[in-house]
């Protein structure tokens, strides 16, 4: 299962966050994928963008702080910047 599902249905751009065990927290890769999709959809026949999420507990808890902490512990301080 991918962390994010991005697709077009008719004239709608659909984005589904797919990390229910992490309260659908966004990773850097997920935010870049969303940005890329929206950039592409600007030139397409997309009338609306719908964003939803898997699970029942959270739409999106924000950025993945645990991932940022692990990156910092491994010496990657640019992740947090």
Automatic annotation (TrEMBL):
<dbReference type="InterPro" id="IPR029045">
    <property type="entry name" value="ClpP/crotonase-like_dom_sf"/>
</dbReference>
<keyword id="KW-0378">Hydrolase</keyword>
<dbReference type="Pfam" id="PF16113">
    <property type="entry name" value="ECH_2"/>
</dbReference>
<dbReference type="GO" id="GO:0006574">
    <property type="term" value="P:L-valine catabolic process"/>
</dbReference>
<dbReference type="GO" id="GO:0003860">
    <property type="term" value="F:3-hydroxyisobutyryl-CoA hydrolase activity"/>
</dbReference>
<protein>
    <recommendedName>
        <fullName>3-hydroxyisobutyryl-CoA hydrolase</fullName>
        <ecNumber>3.1.2.4</ecNumber>
    </recommendedName>
</protein>
<dbReference type="InterPro" id="IPR032259">
    <property type="entry name" value="HIBYL-CoA-H"/>
</dbReference>
<feature type="domain" description="Enoyl-CoA hydratase/isomerase">
    <location>
        <begin position="13"/>
        <end position="77"/>
    </location>
</feature>
<dbReference type="InterPro" id="IPR045004">
    <property type="entry name" value="ECH_dom"/>
</dbReference>
